Amino acid sequence: xxxxxxxxxxxxxxxxxxxxxxxxxxxxxxxxxxxxxxxxxxxxxxxxxxxxxxxxxxxxxxxxxxxxxxxxxxxxxxxxxxxxxxxxxxxxxxxxxxxxxxxxxxxxxxxxxxxxxxxxxxxxxxxxxxxxxxxxxxxxxxxxxxxxxxx
Length: 151
Fold this sequence. Notes:
Layout: E1 4-5, E2 8-9, E3 26-27, E4 30-31, E5 40-41, E6 45-46, E7 55-58, E8 61-63, E9 68-76, E10 86-91, E11 94-95, E12 105-107, E13 112-118, E14 127-136, E15 139-150
């Protein structure tokens, strides 16, 4: 129940049940009436629950050519536990691959991913963009870019 103030009833800080995301779910408002106004019922309206937008965070790294580094990323969506999806890493837009030329990706487990990667011995000393790319059937694609400093 909600109190009507100046003709408006407002519910704040309400946690929407997950079953409200099902297609065809509707909502209606019912005013029980008062001595001045009879009972009123709104039309049923379809509920559209916006897809939540998680965040993807990775870290800048400093290393030397030929060093083995650990690429990490964290995916958060409030207090939800995320264990579906995968992350690939890119250096200056090129996907990180193993010694056999296969793309290195990490499956998300408990909101985290971690991949070890050995930088090429001939990698030039400079700053590179390092990008983590998260993909999942539960969320839209996410990216986070930091700096890889090779010294």
